[in-house]
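Quick one, T. Sequence first:
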Amino acid sequence: MGNKKHGIAFLIIGIAALLIGTLLDISNSQIKSVETGYGLKLTENPMDKSWCYEIYANGKLQIRQEYVPGISEKVRFASKTDAERIGKIVLNRLKKGRFPAITKQDLEENEISYQ
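Structure tokens:
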């Protein structure tokens, strides 16, 4: 009887460990990029429901952009899609070794709201 209880306990612990490992892997999946060491993560500001993007290099935060770049005003990203589009442009430029600055033309071409 005791061996059966130990077996069940080990089974439960094993399943819990697998679930925790899977959840941790899912939460980190946005920042992984094997080829270049760069990754993109999107986060929402719960206070005003705005979005920002973060660029990671080898797991370390390099850029955190809370405001739409390329304009003089401080305008937050209105949607996750807007933050993601600009974040991907910056990420791709970094991967190619280019300067990642964003212009108004980039914003207009990607239909990013900034007014």
